[in-house]
Write a structure and sequence with these properties.
This protein has one domain. The chain is about 55% helix and about 15% strand. The strands form 2 sheets. The chain has a two-stranded antiparallel sheet with strand order 1-2. The protein is elongated, with a radius of gyration of 21 Å. It contains 2 helices and 4 strands, in the order ββββαα. Helix 1 packs across helix 2. The chain is α+β, with helices and mostly antiparallel strands. The model has no long low-confidence stretch (mean pLDDT about 85).
Length: about 100
């Protein structure tokens, strides 16, 4: 990993680690670095909604939709895990 420093428009400097061979994606509006395009699209929609182009709005909507799907799947898996743990503990209690 290499260290990189970038100065934002407001004069603050950001330090971040960049894996070898990877280039961070930088926000054109505030200079904040991101590891993935999806994270940059989500940042654009949250931090700069009034300044976005039509393409950036569509990228935000796509990233937001996939993020909602991932969260929904995680919640279902977590609920299934909790239900399984509950029944295992119930069976242990019944046997003891």
């Amino acid at each position: 990993m290499t260290d990189a420093t970038r100065t934002q428009r407001d004069g603050q400097s950001l330090s971040f680690d960049v894996p070898e061979g990877d280039e961070p994606v930088i926000c054109d509006y505030c200079g904040q670095p991101y590891a993935r395009e999806k994270w940059l699209a989500l940042h654009h929609g949250r931090a700069h909604p009034a300044e976005l182009t039509d393409e950036e709005i569509e990228a935000f909507r796509a990233a937001h939709g996939s993020e909602e799907t991932e969260i929904r799947e995680f919640r279902l898996r977590a609920l299934g895990g909790l239900v399984a743990i509950y029944f295992v503990l119930l069976m242990i209690y019944a046997l003891v």
